[in-house]
Amino acid sequence: MRWPKLILQKRYRVEWLDFTGTINGKLSEVEPAACWSEGVLVKNRKDYLVLASSQYTEDTKDPMGDYVCLLKGACVSCKRL
User: Fold this and answer.
1) Across-strand partners of 11?
2) Within 13 A of 74's CA, how many CA atoms are on the CB side?
3) CA triplet 42, 47, 52: central angle to 5 degrees?
4) pLDDT tens-digit series, residues 31-70
5) How far is it, in rounded angstroms, from Cα 4 to Cα 2?
């Protein structure tokens, strides 16, 4: 996939494939699950990114909040909102 220029503190919608597994299941039914996440880009690393859907404003050094960490290799599209 081709990545747009990622800018911290901007909002994105990322479509990605989630890892799945099965125990005592059929091989033909094991496939990745298609997912999407939206949020503010708060971390951009070589292999992964982190989106925040919410953050507490009290601690700016290492804020607490609701985050999703996505491996870039599992992402199939990324659009700035």
Assistant:
1) 40
2) 17
3) 20
4) 999 999 999 999 999 999 999 999 998 877 889 999 999 9
5) 7
